[in-house]
Amino acid sequence: MSGVVGTGRSQGATWRVHGLSVRGYRHVQQGLPCQDAWGQVCVGPHGARVTVLAVADGAGSRPRSEEGAHLAIRLATSVFGRRLASFPTVPGEGDTLARLQRDAFREVVDTFLDDTRELAGDRGGPEDFATTLTVLALGPGWVGHTSLGDGFAVLRAGETDGAPQFHLLPQPEPPGEYGNETTFLSSPDAASRVRIDCVRDDGVDGVLLSTDGLAQAALSTTDGRGPAPNRSFAASVLRALDRPGPDPQADAEDLGALLRSHRLTALNADDKTLVRAVRGARREWGRGLS
Predict the structure, then answer these.
(1) Average pLDDT over residues 57-77
(2) Residue 190 CA from chain centroid, whole number
(3) Sheet with 272-279, side-by-side order of all strands
(4) CA 181 vs CA 169, 184, 278: distances in Å
(5) In what side-by-side order are the strands of the sheet with 133-139?
(6) Domain residue spans of the chain
(7) What pLDDT was estimated at residue 161?
(8) CA R_g for the chain
(9) What is the rounded distance in angstroms from the CA atom of residue 17 to the CA atom of residue 37?
(10) pLDDT higher than threshold 50 for residue 157
(11) Core-most of 48, 56, 157, 274, by most CB within 10 Å?
């Protein structure tokens, strides 16, 4: 999917969104398409908009995973957008938002299985379309996170000694709970393996959403306590959106150059997807970068 800049509103401020999926070096060598995808939608009444972001990573070993990733994005933005549009204000209890996200995820899974069975016909099944899915919903004073597989989100909220603080979602699972297994929308246990997070914080003003192709660059394990945000990477990527250049197309090309750079390719040769969003836009950007 090509880069797109869009806007959504939260508490009177603008969410500026920019995302890009690029082929990894391995797929370039093999002549295969990018099997990642991303999407966004803004819903809800004016002044209390909810911005839904989603990324998907098709399983490289499955023959129709590219189709599966794009189908997952279409379903996620449609279903989560419809269900969360009726919940535009700060939740009184996190359980309410968690229930909405879980119900939306189950609808996505059910529809994904039905649609892929129809697409496959007698020549396969949903497993041929295997894909992960991570959804981030940005509402007025709250963030909802739903993740199946190895996608992740980084939130920017608050400062310590003048330096922005970054927080990882989902939090690492207990050692040995699932090991290095990856669960897909077509997996029988998808509903039980999904991770749901709810954050209530007016201070969240920047987010990154990514597939696992950027894990080595965007995350760090140097603190000895499992994965944590790589602060320098997150700060740099969001800073470029906080202070955009005069040409949005040039900014989009800069992000593409970063994702295809030798430095990131050396860390991971897989497809890469990065969606970034900042709140409080200094300049309105319209849709239409492609």
Answers:
(1) 96
(2) 18
(3) 4-10, 13-22, 272-279, 204-210, 152-160, 163-169
(4) 18, 10, 32
(5) 36-43, 50-57, 133-139, 142-148, 195-200
(6) 4-267
(7) 86
(8) 18
(9) 15
(10) yes
(11) 56
Does the pLDDT of residue 3 top 60, yes or no? no
204-227 pLDDT, tens digit each? 999 999 999 999 999 987 656 778
Query: How is residue 29 written in tokens?
Result: 């060598």
Alpha-carbon distance of 154 to 203, in angstroms, equals 14
Q: What tokens appear for 33 in the block?
A: 């398409």
Q: List, in order, residues 6 or more apart from 226 with CB less than 8 Å away.
A: 172
How distant, in Å, are the alpha carbons of 76, 108, 125 from that of 116? Answer: 15, 12, 7
Per-residue pLDDT tens digits for 79-106 = 999 999 877 554 455 568 999 999 999 9
- Does the structure show a pLDDT above 90 at 194? yes
CB-based contact 129:64 (threshold 8 Å): yes
Question: CA 287, CA 44: separation in Å to the nearest integer?
Answer: 18
Among 151, 178, 152, 182, smallest CA distance to 167 is for 152
Residue type, 85: A
> Comparing C-alpha atoms, which of 273, 281, 254 is closest to residue 40?
273
Separation CA 284–CA 290 (nearest Å): 17
- Please return the burial class of 250, using the count of CB atoms within 10 Å of its CB with bins 0-12, 13-18 and 19+: exposed
Q: What is the mean pLDDT of residues 192-203?
A: 93
CATH architecture of the domain 4-267 equals 4-Layer Sandwich (3.60)
Write down the number of H helices and E strands in the chain. 8, 13
Could you tell me which residue, 153 or 122, shows the higher pLDDT? Answer: 153
- Residue-wise pLDDT for 247-290, tens only, equals 777 878 889 999 999 999 999 999 999 999 999 744 333 332 22
Under 8 Å between Cβ of 143 and 137: yes
In DSSP terms, 178 is beta-bridged to: none
